[in-house]
Amino acid sequence: MRLKEVAERLGLEFLVTADPEAEVRGGYVSDLLSDVLAHAEAGDLWITHQRHLNVVAVAKLRGVAGVVFARGLRPGPEALRRAEEEGVNLLLSPSDAFDTAGRLHRLLLP
Amino acid sequence: MRWYRADLHIHSVLSPCASLAMSPRRIVAEARRAGLDLIAICDHNAGENGKYARRLAQTPEILMGMEIQTAEEVEILALFPEEEPCLALQEELYELLPPVPNDPELFGDQLVVDEEDEIVRTIPKLLLSPVPLPLEEVVGRVRARGGLVIPAHVERVPGGLLGVLGLLPPGEWPAVEISPWARLGEALSRWPELRERRILRSSDAHYPEEIGRAWTELYAESPTFAELERAVAGRGGREIRPGPEWKEGR
What we know:
The structure holds 2 protein chains of 2 kinds. Chain A has helices spanning 3-10, 33-39, 54-62, 77-86, 97-108, and strands at residues 13-16, 26-29, 44-48, 66-69, 90-92. In chain A, helix 2 links the parallel strand 2 and strand 3. Chain A has one domain (3-108): HprK N-terminal domain-like (Udp-n-acetylmuramoylalanyl-d-glutamate--2,6- Diaminopimelate Ligase, Chain: A, domain 1, 3-Layer(aba) Sandwich). Helices cover 42% and strands 18% of the residues of chain A. In chain A, strands 1-5-4-3-2 form a 5-stranded mixed sheet, with helices on both faces. The model of chain A has no long low-confidence stretch (mean pLDDT 97). Chain B is of the alpha/beta class. Chain B has a single domain (2-249), classed as Alpha-Beta Barrel (TIM Barrel). Chain B starts with a strand and ends in an 8-residue tail after the last strand. At the A-B interface, helix 2 and helix 3 of A face helix 6 of B.
């Protein structure tokens, strides 16, 4: 499913829109970037509470479809700027990680 | 110049997770037993017991320090040559800590203990919480006060800079600490960026018998903060390298 459709269905707000047509093939939930580097797959929508700048670099390296900050946690301006430069989709979910991941799972694997 | 042994990451009774036996007096005695020339007492978001340890000894040399947990839940060592900047930063961070009271039954006691093993005071807020400041802000505040920043047990999950953030973030990271049990070769092959850094190893002792299980080797004129800084900067022929891994920890 396209990222823009996922965003619409889950009520996610785009913070940085790099490629809304990106294909979302799965999901991954983690706040540990070493874990994401080792285990997230390309095309995953990555749900996290981690707002450090390195999130952008890790998202780019893994080729995830986008990063969703759970519970309305907004990353700082430096991360937004870097995501624009690197072409990484950043989104905001007003819901917590459990709820966001649960609804994503139902959407992708009904 | 000669080689000295340093252990710059030792917890005291001010850390709730450390043994009640870890008074400044006991730590100094154990450090002497272990043949250490330079130590730092780095409690979680606190450094006050270092002040009392320094009243006890010429040997080993004792630096002021803290293990600060940032908003990302990354832990960094902040080392200082003098008491004032360390204690001022401790106060600043304490104000910012979430208002979660420590429950000594659950987490352990948080005691400031003087050089005679007398309790000076107990710290009410739980020190095992991250301060709500981003890593870069914490690093900036430490350096602004003349402190040396060393990411603690950098490879570890949780708590290590690389374990949590996956890569070294932009900025200056001249030196990092690895865990007592970390294999240097494995760490260097997993994170090649560490090859360009000075690497320290510490005991991260929470119990008296853990002091001496791991250390850093410092080649310098004397075991002091100024010489440590020179070694970290690679100046004047000073060197710094991790001691051997603690094999029982694996």
